[in-house]
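Kindly inspect what follows.
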Amino acid sequence: MRRSTTGPSTLNPWLNVPLEDYERHMELPEIGQALMLTETLATAVRERRPNSVAIAGCAGGNSVVRVAAMGVGRVVGIDFNPQYLAEVHRRLGRWVPGLELHLADIQRGVPDCEPVDLVFAGLILEYVEVPATLKVLRALCAPAGALVVVLQRPSETTPKVSESPYRSLKALESFMRLRDPASVTAEALSVGFVATASERIALPSGKAFEVLSFRS
């Protein structure tokens, strides 16, 4: 297993969210976002049959497990939080031989990471500068590679960060910026992506998400 480290560049509220809080929050049946993200990635893998996948914002590695179980030979996990990556290493380091872990601010680049066939960015553009991040994601895509982005859409009935017993996540609400799919698509085209598909996903919670697909 390969690991690289650049360290977080700035103080970020994500550094203060315990992984256990995040995972339990996302897995709550009334929220359902963990399953939605994992299934969206699994669908992309089934459709594209990549040999390598990078997961931007891999958290504790649930999506890594799913991708590895589908036979992807090289799985790259990228995250801003060193504690999250340490837990991925503890959970999966021996079980996923082709696993690479990179501690990186995705807005600034991912050092020592060779391009991959599929990049998955699920609910991360809400917390970063979009133009800079899309340039990095474009560099992560191999020739004829693909990018799949999941964006949260505004809701009139639910807050940006869903209510749950895990109060540490509320610190993210003021930091979170919902992105317009049309603007994200325009930025992606400007850095060399080609738009291939878009899909709306609605969850029982009342929240909706946009899945944007691109090729390099």
